[in-house]
Every structure is written in C-alpha cells, then in structure tokens.
Amino acid sequence: MTSAKITPDSLRAMKARGEKIAALTAYDYPMAKLLDESGVPLLLVGDSLGMVVLGYPNTTLVTMAEMEHHTRAAARAKPNALLGADLPFHAYDTPETALANAQGLVAAGAEYVKAEGGREVLPQVRAIVGAGIPFVGHLGMLPQHILEEGGKYRIKGRDDAGHAKLLDDAAALAEAGAFAVVLELVTPPVAKEITGRFPFATIGIGSGPDCDGQILVTHDLIGTFPWFTPKFVKPKFHAAEQIRVAVQAWRQEI
Ligand code: KIV
Q: 47 CB less than 6 Å from ligand 1?
C-alpha cells in the first residue's frame, strides 16, 4: 500500500519527478485491496469489465448500473490508491448526462471519472471538471467505438491527419483540466510527444515506453482471462492454468 492517500496532485508530482505511474484495473473488493497492498497508485474500474467479467463481446453493452455496482465493490477496499471509474458508452452524450452520471459514479465511490474522446466531448469534460470532479481522458483507440472501427483495435497516430488529431484532442483535454489521459494504441513517437508537450500525466496502454505511466487490464497481466490476451501484454502469471490444476487436484481427492 502507498504510505499516503494518492490524489490527482500526487500523480502530477510523480510526472514532474519522472516517477513512472503504475495503473491497473480493479472491478471488485479483493482485487482493489490486493493491488492497493501491492503499491499500485492508480486504480480504474474500467468498462473493460464488460468483457473480462461480464462476458460481453465488447464494452458498448456496459450500463451505468453495472459500473456503479462494481465501483461500489472496489471502493469498499478503501484503497490509498486513487480509484476511478469509466463512464460507459452513451453515458456522456450531453454535458447534462455526463455530469449526472459522473456524480452517480462519485456517489458509488469513484474519486475520478474517465471518458473516451477529445475535442468532441469537450463540453462534457468541462461540465464534469467544472463540478469539481477529477477527470481522466482517453485518446487513441477508443474501445467504445470498436463497432465504427469494424470490430478491430487499430493503432492511432500513424499518418499526419491522425497525428494532428491526437495533438488537437490532447490540447482540448489539457485546456478542460484533465489531470491524466490514457493513450491507447498510440504510436510510440506520438505518445512521447504528447507526454512532453502537455501538463497531464499520460498513462499508456500499448503506446510504447515513454508515457508517464502504464495501465493494463489486470486480467491480462495475471492470466485470469486466457481466451484473449492483447499482443502488447506479457502476462506475469498464468492464473487460469493454476486454477485448472488446483481444481483437478481437488476433484481427484473427493
Ligand atoms: O476499460 C478499461 O479498462 C480501460 C483501460 C484499459 C485503460 O479503459
């Protein structure tokens, strides 16, 4: 566990010191507690829970009720880590719904909220930050837009137009007051450029080593969802294999 409660300012200070920020997803009480005890400063109740916990094909089916339920469970761990939650698809279509749903996640125990997109969600981000709720952005490959991408996770920032759009979106989020931004599947040189140019902490996922921090879906890191592992993840543990071995050993005993 970190020795003191982590806040958005702690993460800004880590960026200023050049100290890498480790971030992981947690969707329930035991995982939030274990990750906090392991010293991870930034936790996210990600809408990836739709796939790795609820069995949906993608994140677009996740509801506010599901996000609130899992946020309440993770928040019961009372972590020193900063714990946030994703606004799910269509929960921030207007500034009014964005604010109401962000307040719902905060009431469930989230200390920050995250939403996908850049300039196109600027009024929503302004409404959230204006109400005093810490905000994390998400640029690059946006999982809630997977259907528009033809079902494929595509690397962003490869061409001039993609590069310019990422810089413009990053500027919009910086201007609106995001304290951190997840960069998902952004080409490493562009992720490095954004990290150097903007005051928010960049938290990379599949975006190279030069972000201020890195985030992974915990199930990918420890092998509890063995049916799909993104190419950029090197699992540190293969929990599914251990579970199968343990269960088969127990079956032999009964
Ligand atoms: O939903 C999620 O878990 C995420 C992280 C992987 C960044 O958005």
A: yes
